[in-house]
Design a protein that fits this description.
With 142 residues, this protein is mostly helical. The chain is built from 7 helices and no strands. Helix 3 packs across helix 5, helix 3 packs antiparallel against helix 7 and helix 5 (81-95) runs antiparallel to helix 6 (97-116).
């Protein structure tokens, strides 16, 4: 009985996803290509990467400040990293997979620090992100 309920729930969830994807589709082939391209597969200019990294570094500095006094604000700021990361991560991953992984690891650390109000851990992660940004930009200037 329990298995049937789980199977029914899984089927319903699958239908919702399929129907949602169909309902959101568009006739524009450009939009379809963008919608199906994973962030890691997108490519952008060196200037856009540099601008994105500058925004991420500003956000991580703000997280460090907030983590010491306002965990909710720090957590909210941590959520601001991904929208700036998504457009540039594919380019970074293609150019230097090791730096890409270093960023991903540091983002996980700073997010955890923000959620837990650990300003020391956030400061270390923010410094790692700044150093990794500088290393990347030295090799791929924008």
């Amino acid at each position: 009985m329990r298995f049937r309920r789980l199977a029914a729930a899984a089927t319903t969830a699958t239908l919702v996803v399929v129907m949602g994807a169909t309902a959101c589709s568009s006739d524009s082939s450009d939009e379809k290509a963008t919608a199906t391209t994973a962030p890691e597969e997108r490519r952008t200019s060196a200037a856009e990467v540099a601008a994105g990294l500058a925004k991420i570094n500003a956000t991580t500095a703000a997280i460090v400040t907030a983590a010491a006094v306002d965990m909710k604000k720090a957590e909210s700021l941590a959520g601001d990293i991904e929208p700036d990361w998504l457009p540039i991560e594919g380019t970074i991953k293609e150019n230097d997979p090791d730096i890409y992984i270093a960023f991903e690891d540091a983002f996980a650390v700073i997010e955890d620090a923000a959620v837990n109000g650990d300003d020391k851990k956030a400061a270390t992660a923010a410094q790692d992100i700044a150093t990794t940004s500088a290393t990347y930009l030295a090799a791929y200037p924008g």
